[in-house]
Amino acid sequence: MARQFALQLGLLAFAASTADAAVTGQDVSGGLWTALGRLAVFYGLGLVCGGLARLLVDEQVQRDFERWLAAADATANSTP
């Protein structure tokens, strides 16, 4: 999931950079190198943000599951 987010973010940065280079009239090689550099930076940023989001969701699900399990055990133990 983090890789998919990183890929989408990187490709979006690449597309925006190449469009910017085309609109401003930069030469093709300079614009592509800039776009590739931005793709790499935003891919890395997407990996980090996607990984953190996955960890946060995993922790929340684990906490909710443990809370649900404790409530189920309490209910099972309280019935005569």
TrEMBL record:
<protein>
    <recommendedName>
        <fullName>DUF1206 domain-containing protein</fullName>
    </recommendedName>
</protein>
<keyword id="KW-0472">Membrane</keyword>
<feature type="transmembrane region" description="Helical">
    <location>
        <begin position="31"/>
        <end position="57"/>
    </location>
</feature>
<feature type="signal peptide">
    <location>
        <begin position="1"/>
        <end position="21"/>
    </location>
</feature>
<keyword id="KW-1133">Transmembrane helix</keyword>
<keyword id="KW-0732">Signal</keyword>
<keyword id="KW-0812">Transmembrane</keyword>
